[in-house]
Write a structure and sequence with these properties.
The complex is a heterodimer of chains A (292) and B (240).
Chain A lengths: L1 H32 L6 H16 L4 H24 L7 H23 L4 E2 L9 E4 L2 E4 H23 L1 H11 L1 H6 L4 H27 L1 E2 L5 H14 L4 H20 L6 H15 L14
Antiparallel strand pairs in A: 1-4, 2-3
Chain B lengths: L4 E10 L2 E11 L4 E6 L5 H8 L7 E6 L2 E2 L5 H7 L1 E4 L11 H8 L6 H14 L1 H5 L10 H13 L5 E5 L7 H16 L3 E5 L3 H7 L2 E6 L2 E7 H6 L1 H8 L5
Parallel strand pairs in B: 3-8, 3-9, 6-7, 7-8
Antiparallel strand pairs in B: 1-2, 1-4, 4-5, 9-10
Helix pairs in contact in B: 3-6
Classes of the chains: A mainly alpha (292), B alpha/beta (240).
Bound molecules: adenosine-5'-triphosphate and magnesium ion.
Adenosine-5'-triphosphate binds next to strand 2 and helix 1 of chain B.
């Protein structure tokens, strides 16, 4: 029995970690701007394409850092161009802008790739096969949850223990008063996008090592699941997003283990509805007051 | 010698509403200057314009010889103007100590910041007891003390306070005014807004009366306290 479930459990923990790395970007941006960054999943996809094209022209040890830098630059630019000018506009305007950016990025990717699926390069070591008990899998399956925990722990330390982290918490509560303290709001907001995009870049490397092809819309599903995880955990809460992501990853794979593969996505959303009915603020969510 | 802060013919509009219709006043170094006026007169707007939170329509704001009209809020703090905003606005999700630390956000002198925090704790022992508590769990009066302490952590040359005594029990109000006097004796210049006109005028060197966007009277605190029109309009039955 356990032998049969174990490989699924392992896959669930792994994909949960990948969702978590994306979910943190959603939840941090929401925490500071009260914005659902619909473009976040597309930034994740773009990271995949960056790797496809860049690894074709240079060795991986250069491609990996360059892809990370480009993804971060993309996230930063999206915020500066599409969100920053709308800082004082009604919340709905910036949401629409986010949806616009999402489609713009998707269309750009269609245009550049011609809509064809591209083969993701084989990243060394994490693509190696290993056997763990009853599961034969790739190293990435083991690496993902560990790396996720390490990165998220580092992030939580940053937010709780450092000066910039304190500024982020202050800005997330009250823009105006944060400005009165001498905090540069725009730098703090940019920092959040940089961190979120960095984690999405790492997440994409782990994700595409498992799924191996990149298409312009491939980020939609993991992006949506990560978003669900963030809402499920209580949007705005980083630990919440991580716990939510692992629960979703594990649960959908257990459903596969039971033979209901077709329903595994539907399950995720059913879970979301259920949670929102029972606890509208999510697992770790606090009642957020509207920001002045 | 020219004044520390010179506001000249300052106008501020919110959409179509003229909140300030061209006000002029000055704050001398080392003094307590107070603005009094009814609700909606434009007192908070004046402070928000000085601190760079709202755009001015016209006029000049000169601080220590520099035109600060083009400065944003962050630059104004860097010039040495700190504010205790209306309604306290402490960061509820930060601890008491972090709220004090964040007041010193632009300062680089780490050790002196620690000493500054200790100094605030001496003034407000309540805050020391609640050092690690989230500011959101403090009582209203304690939050007000924290807001004052936080602004002091910036080591401002000019401290602007927007109704620091609002909603506080009489005893706490007395404490707040004692602190204001003490700050003055330490050489900090203060621009104070108060509903409690009586107490404000008592400690003010200079006072201005603001009525629907215009300054209609000015004089020393003592002079306005004695003025019949001020007594009728702002002091009510609290005047002796
Ligand atoms: N953001 C805003 N948008 C539109 N009108 C505003 C805004 N802020 C203030 N006003 C208006 O400007 C005028 C002055 O407001 P202000 O807050 O400066 O008054 P105040 O003297 O501080 O009053 P109070 O004693 O009630 O705090 C009021 O008529 C107010 O309605
Ligand atoms: Mg006011």
């Amino acid at each position: 029995m356990f032998d049969k479930i174990f490989p699924y459990l392992l896959a669930g923990v792994s994909v949960g970690g990948q969702y978590a790395l994306i979910a943190v970007g959603y939840t941090m941006v929401y925490g500071i701007l009260r914005l659902i960054n619909f473009a976040h999943g597309d930034i994740f996809t773009a990271a995949g394409f960056f790797m496809v094209y860049i690894s074709a022209t240079m060795p991986l040890y250069l491609a990996i850092p360059l892809v990370t830098v480009l993804t971060v630059a993309l996230g930063f630019t999206v915020e500066r161009v599409a969100y920053k000018p709308l800082r004082t506009a009604p919340r709905m305007s910036i949401m629409i802008s986010a949806i616009g950016v999402s489609y713009l990025l998707q269309n750009l990717m269609w245009y550049i790739t011609g809509g064809l699926a591209k083969q993701y390069p084989v990243l060394p070591w994490i693509s190696d096969s290993i056997t763990l008990g009853s599961a034969s899998t790739k190293v990435v399956t083991i690496v993902t949850p560990i790396l996720t925990i390490v990165l998220v722990t580092a992030l939580v330390m940053l937010i709780q223990r450092t000066k910039i982290g304190m500024a982020m918490r202050a800005v997330s509560k009250d823009f105006e008063t944060a400005e009165l303290m001498g905090i540069k709001i725009n730098s703090v907001i940019s920092t959040t996008f940089i961190i979120g995009s960095f984690l999405a870049a790492v997440g994409s490397m782990l994700y595409f090592t498992n799924y191996t092809t990149v298409t312009p819309t491939i980020g939609a599903m993991p992006g949506l699941k990560a978003f669900v995880a963030a809402v499920f955990g209580g949007i705005g809460s980083i630990p919440g997003a991580v716990v939510g992501a692992f629960i979703i990853g594990i649960a959908e794979n257990l459903i596969r283990a039971m033979g209901y593969t077709t329903f595994s996505d539907a399950f995720t959303f059913a879970l979301l509805i259920l949670i929102l009915l029972v606890k509208p603020t999510g697992l770790f969510g606090e009642k957020t007051s509207e920001k002045v | 010698m020219s004044s520390m802060l010179i506001v000249k013919d300052l106008k501020v509009n919110y959409g179509g509403i003229e909140a300030l219709k061209g006000i002029s006043f000055e704050v001398e170094q080392g003094q307590i200057v107070t603005l009094i006026g009814a609700n909606g007169a434009g007192k908070s707007t004046t402070l928000r314009a000085i601190s760079g939170l709202v755009k001015t329509a016209s006029g000049a704001i000169n601080f220590m010889g520099r035109d600060i009209i083009p400065f944003n809020a962050q630059q104004v703090v860097a010039e040495g103007i700190a504010m205790v905003p209306e309604g306290r606005r402490v960061f509820e999700n930060l601890t008491v100590k972090e709220n004090l630390k964040i007041g010193a956000y632009l300062r680089k002198d780490r050790e002196e910041i620690e000493a500054g925090i200790e100094d605030i704790y001496q003034r407000f022992p309540r805050l020391k007891e609640r050092e690690w508590q989230l500011a959101g769990t403090l009582s209203g009066g304690e939050q007000q003390m924290l807001a004052v302490g936080r602004a002091m952590m910036a080591r401002p040359k000019l401290l602007m306070m927007d109704e620091p005594s609002l909603g506080l029990a009489p005893l706490v109000v007395k404490d707040i005014f004692a602190i204001i006097r003490e700050l003055k004796s330490e050489g900090i210049t203060i621009l104070l807004i108060e509903q409690n006109a009586n107490a404000a005028l008592r400690c003010a060197d200079m006072a201005y009366v603001l009525e629907t966007g215009n300054i209609t009277m000015s004089g020393t605190g003592q002079a306005l306290l004695a003025d019949q029109r001020v007594r009728d309009a702002y002091l009510g039955s609290t005047a002796r």
